[in-house]
Amino acid sequence: MASTQHSHDEQHLTSSAMLQDIVIGLSDGLTVPFALAAGLSGAVQSSALVITAGLAEVVAGSIAMGLGGYLAGRTEIDHYASELAREHREVRDIPDAERAEVDELLADMGLSPATRAAAVRELTADPEQWVQFMMKYELGLEEPDPKQAPKSAATISLAYALGGVVPLSAYFFTSTPAQGLFWSAVITLVCLLVFGYLKSRMTGQPPVWGAIKMAATGALAAAAAFLVARQFSTLA
């Protein structure tokens, strides 16, 4: 009788830098221009002015967000290179102290003294392997992709721009800022609910609660901007 093998398929989210960048760009893109448009709607009577200011913010915001993503990626690369050079120096200049650190790390993993001694000899026989072990298990650092910084910049910038167009779209098809604000709020809050739901599902969080939190954040930001603008327009 032939044996039957049952495969166990585990489904886990593989967290990617691109997914994180999309989340950062879209969440800010949906929220910040929405709040700006809401604030202007409480202070001006021209939809064209709201559109002009909103588009200017989307352009400036997407550039700033993209630059921030690029600088963050470059900082990670520079930090890794600096720590890598330091580990190479320590392995070369103070090998006994570094061997003791390897033994301590292996002890924390639960290895027996005899096993640790053999593992230390194997790991420290090759300086490059030794350094990589220290980078990963002592410092918790993985070598970053040198191409990730420009990828992050482009992804965050594009996601921000796409998200920012959503709240402004209603003003193109309405005659007054008040009408534009109403439909902008409807469209944006629906998008925030959907985005929050999908993001929470992908990250293993309660999706309904994630959707509510995302929509509430956008609504609070827009309400605060609207009230402040209305207050200042009244005092002016």
Model description:
- This protein is an all-alpha fold and 236 residues long.
- The N terminus is likely disordered.
- It has eight helices and no strands.
How do the helices and strands line up, and which of them pair or pack?
Elements: H1 17-41, H2 47-93, H3 95-108, H4 113-125, H5 127-138, H6 148-169, H7 177-202, H8 207-235
Helix pairs in contact: 1-2, 1-6, 1-7, 1-8, 2-3, 2-5, 2-6, 3-4, 6-7, 7-8
Give structural attributes.
236 residues, mainly alpha, disordered N terminus
Order of helices and strands: HHHHHHHH
Helix content: over 70%
Gyration radius (Cα, Å) is 26 Å
- Protein structure class: mainly alpha
Mean pLDDT: 82
What share of the residues does DSSP label as strand, in percent?
Answer: under 5%
Number of strands: 0
Spatial shape: elongated
Major sheet summary line: none
- First-last Cα distance: 89 Å
- Which parts are unreliable, with pLDDT below 50 for 5 consecutive residues or more? 1-15
Put simply, the count of helices is 8
Task: Describe what is shown at a glance.
With 236 residues, the chain is mostly helical. It has helices at residues 17-41, 47-93, 95-108, 113-125, 127-138, 148-169, 177-202, 207-235.
